[in-house]
Amino acid sequence: MSGVELLVAAMLSAGTPLALAGLGLLVNERAGVLNLGAEGTMLVGAVTGFATAYHTGSVTLALVAGALSGALMGLVLGWLVIWLNTNQYATGLAVSLFGSGFSAFVGLSYVGKQLVERPFPRVPVLSDVPLLGPALFRQHPVVYLAMVAAGAIALFFYRTRAGLVLRSIGESPVSAHALGYPVRRIRLAAVVAGAALCGVSGAYLSVVYTPLWVEGMVGGRGWIALALTVFATWRPGRILAGAYLFGGVTMLQLHLQAQGVEIPAQFMSMLPYLSTIVVLVLISRNPLWIRLNMPASLGKPFFPTG
Amino acid sequence: MIRLEPRPVPSLAMSVLSPAIALALTVAAGFVLFLALGKDPGRVLQVFLLEPMNGVRALTELGLKSTPLVLCALGLALCYRSNVWNIGAEGQFLMGAIAAGGLALFVTQESLAVSRWVFLPALVLAGAAGGGLWAGVVALLRDRFNANEILVSLMLVYVANLFLSWLVFGPWKDPHGFNFPQTMAFAAQTELPRIVRGMRLHWGSLFALAAAFVVWFYMFRTYHGLQLQVGGPSPAAARYAGFSARSAIWTTLVTSGALAGVAGAFEVAGPMGQLTPHVSSGYGFTAIIVAFVGRLHPLGCVLASLLLSVFLIGGELAQSRVGLPSALTGVFQGVLLLSLLACDTLVHNRLRLGRAR
To answer: Percent of chain A having pLDDT more than 90?
Structure first.
């Protein structure tokens, strides 16, 4: 494959975990819950997924296990912030710290283990199209799953009644409650669903992308995904685009090294983190723009009364 | 049916009791975990929780471990009280360690004969500058560009980690160190003086206690400290009173960065004696838990840092004595903070039996 093809292929595969986690966080935040536990949730998803793939040999089961473990983490976070009204920042941090500790503990016996490589079905015909065919159509099915998820979430948000209710809860839980919607249950469902996507993202990282289990292997992608929701001004399509952009930045370092650019590896590895900061600065510069787009109740507790 | 009923005023007693209940819940969770792993829970808990406090030497080690935790947590308590969410103390710690390590390396390489009375203040200043500047970046981006301080401070942790890694793998690597990623051992004169001969506990621990007192005085006995805290729970009231949110951002972030940086400097000039990629054992992140368990109060932070140090040392002991991975510490830390947050519900609410009226 040529340079451009490699870059496109890498953008897609490196952007997919960010896209999945970003979409999950989008569902959380649209319902008004900020999930700072994304990093820990992804780590738990990664270690669960890896263990499942290692013992069963099935990638599908691994992804399902990742989703379930993520959902479980979401359940804990959701119960704490929605029913006990704990501070969303502190609780998310706690989930992240717990996730990184727990995954390190559980994953210890899987360090250095290898997974049997499994061929996956390729898109017929299209993958043989010259130029971008191989780059676009020889990806792992999860890459396409992320795209489908983005489309499905967009449809759900903007074309279904349930999606409208979810968004309205994120804007004004008080009004939704007054209309008789079970605000707390819907919020919990959104948190669990979003966290499940974070879990899938973690499992994709450890089972398909790397495929290895290393302590702390998520490497800040959970936090970058959080920045992504701001960058995308809480819209599914833009999350997808942003994720591929960041995926490209991740791969840029390898690309530049291949070109013989003499920059120490550590400085190249800083790129995703530095570009996250730059993007945050650029997008947040105008507070009005953020306030217009951000779900109005994001991060605020809700007490049902009456 | 049990339900929650809001208290008219937050309960002070619960706010003190809550960490104790959370600790009990954490120990109970540990008990179940060890049973599930087929270990004798009594024995493991004894090694994990009691051994770190057994004897004078163990207690001094506890003090040594809690020093960086106290320093980092004090700054975080200040931040969180004013609703500034700095979660990058780890990065600020590392930048302080790098600045102080650079200074010590310079003194070592040039074989300078500097008196301790000159070097130690310079070391503290270097650490404070390193950490303070790193947090200053967060403050600048938050103040000038409204960039979320949670994400920026955390991204800077990764950047600081990579920067340290570049230094010890590259320009600062010990040429006679068999290619290990570490600087040369610093000269003896750069070492922090110890309190008791033969124990690793050093004067930095007393500095941390003094810092706790100063932060307490600032928080509760100065007008400026009060201003910061009003901005946290009620920004509108603070604005009405004419307190500046901008000044709160800068003061809390730079102070907490400087404190974390000093913690890094002490770690380098104290127990480490050189720079390695592992100069921090995640102190900056553990300090977040310390700050919450310590009720965002300086005295509480000192006590909580001792508890979390027990976890840290207990994890190491559990590895060597009963063959459990030291990653156990992380699980305990996470469970403690989660149960603490759940218990804190009882500060603002009380349990009532029966249905709501």
So the answer is: 64
pLDDT (0 to 100) of residue B162: 95
pLDDT single digits (tens) B316-349: 999 888 888 888 888 999 999 999 999 988 888 8
Provide the sign of the torsion angle of the four alpha carbons A192, A196, A202, A203, taken in this order. Answer: positive
Quickly count: other Cβ atoms within 10 Å of residue A265's Cβ: 14
The answer to whether residue A223 neighbours chain B at the CB level (below 8 Å) is: yes
Backbone Cα Rg of chain B: 21
Tell me the pLDDT tens digit for each residue of B40-96. Answer: 999 999 999 999 998 888 999 999 999 999 999 999 999 999 989 999 999 999 999
DSSP string for A82-129: IIS---HHHHHHHHHHHHHHHHHHHHGGGTT--PPP------TTGGGS
**Does residue A305 form part of some domain?**
no
Q: Which residues of chain B make contact with A25, given a CB cutoff of 8 A?
A: none
What gap in Å lies between CA A277 and CA B147, rounded to an integer?
8
**Helix/strand/coil for B192:** coil
pTM of the model: 0.93
Task: Give B6's contacts in chain A (Cβ within 8 Å).
Answer: 303
> Quick check: is A300 in a domain?
no
Q: Give start and end residues of each alpha helix (H) in chain A.
A: 3-30, 38-56, 59-78, 88-107, 133-137, 141-159, 161-171, 173-178, 183-204, 221-231, 236-258, 265-269, 271-284, 287-293
Q: Read off the pLDDT band of B299 (50, 70, 90).
A: very high
In the prediction, which pLDDT does B302 show?
97
| Cα B319 to Cα B317: distance, rounded to the nearest angstrom | 5
Domain harbouring A141, CATH code = 1.10.3470
Residue of B nearest to A108 (CA): B325
* Chain A hits for B146, Cβ within 8 Å: 284-285, 287, 290
Domain-wise residue ranges, chain B? 68-309
Does residue A304 lie in a domain region? no
CB contact at 8 A, B295 and B289: no
pLDDT value for A77: 96
Asked if A86's CB is within 8 angstroms of B342's CB, the reply is: yes
Residues facing B3 on adjacent strands: B352
Please state, in angstroms and as integers, the Cα–Cα distance from residue B83 to each residue in A39, A82, A177, B232, B266, following that order: 22, 20, 28, 4, 28
Residue A301 lies in a domain: no
Cβ-in-10-Å burial (0-12, 13-18, 19+) of B6 comes to exposed
What ipTM is given for this predicted complex? 0.91
Give the residues of chain A that fall short of pLDDT 50: none
CA-to-CA distance for B138 and A113, rounded, in angstroms?
39
Looking at the predicted structure, is the pLDDT value of residue B357 above 70? no
